[in-house]
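Batch job 17 of 40 flagged for manual review because the log was empty.
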Amino acid sequence: MSSIWIRLSATRLRLPVCAFACLIPLAVSMNWASATEQVVIASTGGAYDRALKAAWFDPFTKETGIQVVTVVATNAEMRAKASAMVKAGNVTWDLYLDGEIQAASEAHRQVTEDLSGFCQQFANRKDLSPNACAPGGALLQSTATLLAYRTGKAGEPVPETWADMWDMKRFPGGRAFPNFDDPWRVMAAALLADGVAKDKLFPLDVDRALAKLDQIRPSITLWWKTGDQSVQGFRNDEYSLGQIWLTRAKAMQTEGLPIAWSSRASFLVGDRISLIKGAPIRRMRSS
């Protein structure tokens, strides 16, 4: 195993995820050829990209001299582009981000490398979460999609459940929901708001969820496609309550914006970083 792998595992795999440190050494071992020593990664841009750059990309470049080039796209665009590149036999990206649920799908498996064998070496690592490495990719991070709201005066009631998000009398104002090819969280929130028990949530009753959404559809003032759009919508006062990513809510709170959130109305989700079939990473030689 190359010294690149040793250095990366020593410095970053202490985190509860594999992420960049797992996937790059994997690419090194697979002996793919590239004209330049760089890694091309598709990500969603904005604050998320800046965090990845500081935590992973810049340290990796400093240590190896290998440049990390990011391509900005929505999750839906990434999936469509990765599939098109593999089908055409003209892959220009090396890695891309995908949700944990999507990374377990058949469509994902058709365009990414199966990491089953590679993941075996991490099976008994106590410093990694049990699902850190999976056939569909290395776990980049786990976070929540949750109910965030604009704070008011001290002592005023605050929304705590998905049912509260549907309560227009107690909590007036615009609503925001994500709008990309991953609708389960919106459906699940609607069903929980309609009284479905957590242990009875799946399989999702789509018709019942859509009927529940119809009750507040006129008040949905933002269907956001990117995390940055959800942030800008809050800054512009486009909504008072929204289903957004915890990472974005925390960033807004750090900015000093009047935002808070409920951990009771939340879904744990994660991103995986996946290796595209035929990716053009060249062999990285140990120093």
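Reviewer: the log was empty due to a logging misconfiguration, but the result itself is present. The chain has two domains: 3-142+271-275, 143-268. Unflagging and moving on to job 18.
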